[in-house]
């Protein structure tokens, strides 16, 4: 693993794309169509006009959420694509997919597939999204869209030129507290002077949120950093790349993972507003919050709870409606955008400002890191 790059890490064994050699058809794991699909657990099936044929790529925790939601909304679970045959087969059987394979091209060649949901390692997103678009499929790709601004911009252009829906699965934008603040800023009720965001978690090992060992190394800047950076720019109303100054401070790369585990970004808009993003993979206490210092008030959003100086304004635990289910609202928006042939709410273009800021942080890191330097071992 190259110790001097944030994003160039040892890549996980990848799923075969559409250009893979045809001599290995993977017939054993492709499976036969199932006569009936069991109802996904946990949600009553909702009949949807013009239901979509869905292929899900990945079988982790995130893939399970999308599968349950889209299946529960009445969409057809056509293909499950996974890296390991046994796990792909087990996931497909559990959730009632018609077919499964380790080869993405099997799903892309199937006319019954309208859309693909990518829940794969971050370094694979751009390549797989490009393959899906080239095959004429709509795409819902988990954040990050790409691991560089150039890749993200290229995907945005491709989707636009082909007339296909390319949506980024960024559920944080659908959290009610954050949506409420964004709407108040857009209406002119709040004028931010600064926004401070913290995304702190413990990820010293290659273990995902589902508890299993990953075959790939996560990326603090391009994965979790994109969540918080995008949210700060979105709340500030920054809609185009290149509209903020970026100052980045990175710790030296971890000796085992080869990436910096602590990063701080300062973003400055043309209106002299500041966005501060603090992120860490060392925190034994998970922290995900935003503090908005506005001319009119100061607001704090912590774990979805919105409060001001007088108390709690919104608590998702007290909300019995579907409004609090950011995953459900996000996936419904994707399906609606596909059916209505319109750009989705979280389009590839809409995340380019964040990708641009992260690219400049990456470039600064690449230019300043002393050869061979690593973070001290304190444990």
Folded structure, characterized:
Keywords: Oxidoreductase. This protein has ten helices and 14 strands. α3 links the parallel β2 (76-81) and β3. The longest helix has 17 residues, at 220-236. The protein has an eight-stranded mixed sheet, with helices on one face. α5 packs parallel to α6 (149-162), α7 (176-186) crosses α8 and α8 (220-236) crosses α10. The protein folds into two domains: 49-171, NAD(P)-binding Rossmann-like Domain (Rossmann fold, 3-Layer(aba) Sandwich); 173-323 and 348-368, 2-Layer Sandwich (Dihydrodipicolinate Reductase, domain 2), CATH 3.30.360.10. With 379 residues, it is of the alpha/beta class. Helix content is 31%, strand content 23%.
């Amino acid at each position: 693993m190259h110790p001097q790059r944030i994003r160039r890490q040892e890549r996980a064994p990848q799923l075969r794309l559409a250009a893979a050699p045809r001599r290995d058809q993977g017939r054993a794991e492709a499976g036969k169509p199932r006569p009936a699909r069991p109802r996904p657990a946990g949600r009553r099936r909702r009949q949807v006009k013009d239901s979509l044929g869905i292929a899900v790529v990945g079988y982790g925790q995130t893939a399970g959420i999308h599968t349950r939601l889209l299946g529960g909304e009445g969409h057809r679970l056509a293909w499950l694509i996974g890296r390991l045959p046994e796990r792909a087969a087990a996931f497909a059987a559990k959730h009632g997919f018609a077919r499964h394979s380790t080869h993405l091209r099997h799903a892309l060649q199937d006319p019954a597939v309208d859309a693909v949901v990518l829940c794969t390692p971050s370094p694979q997103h751009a390549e797989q999204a490009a393959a899906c678009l080239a095959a004429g499929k709509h795409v819902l790709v988990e954040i990050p869209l790409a691991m560089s601004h150039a890749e993200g911009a290229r995907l945005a252009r491709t989707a636009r030129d082909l007339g296909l829906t390319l949506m980024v699965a960024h559920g944080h934008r659908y959290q009610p507290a954050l949506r409420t603040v964004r709407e108040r800023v857009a209406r002119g009720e709040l004028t931010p002077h600064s926004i401070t965001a913290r995304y702190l978690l413990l990820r010293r090992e290659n273990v995902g949120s589902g508890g299993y060992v990953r075959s790939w190394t996560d990326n603090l800047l391009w994965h979790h950093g994109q969540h918080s950076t995008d949210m700060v720019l979105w709340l500030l109303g920054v809609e185009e790349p290149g509209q903020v100054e970026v100052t980045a401070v990175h710790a030296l790369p971890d000796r085992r993972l080869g990436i910096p585990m602590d990063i701080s970004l300062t973003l400055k808009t043309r209106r002299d507003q500041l966005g501060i993003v603090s992120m860490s993979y060392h925190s034994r206490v998970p922290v995900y919050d935003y503090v908005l210092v506005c001319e009119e008030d100061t607001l704090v959003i912590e774990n979805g709870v919105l409060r001001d100086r007088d108390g709690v304004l919104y608590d998702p635990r007290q909300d019995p409606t579907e409004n609090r289910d950011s995953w459900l609202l996000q996936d419904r928006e994707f399906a609606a955008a596909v059916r209505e042939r319109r750009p989705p709410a979280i389009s590839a273009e809409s995340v380019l400002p964040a990708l641009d800021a992260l690219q400049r942080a990456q470039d600064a890191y690449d230019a300043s890191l002393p050869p061979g330097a690593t973070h001290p071992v304190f444990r």
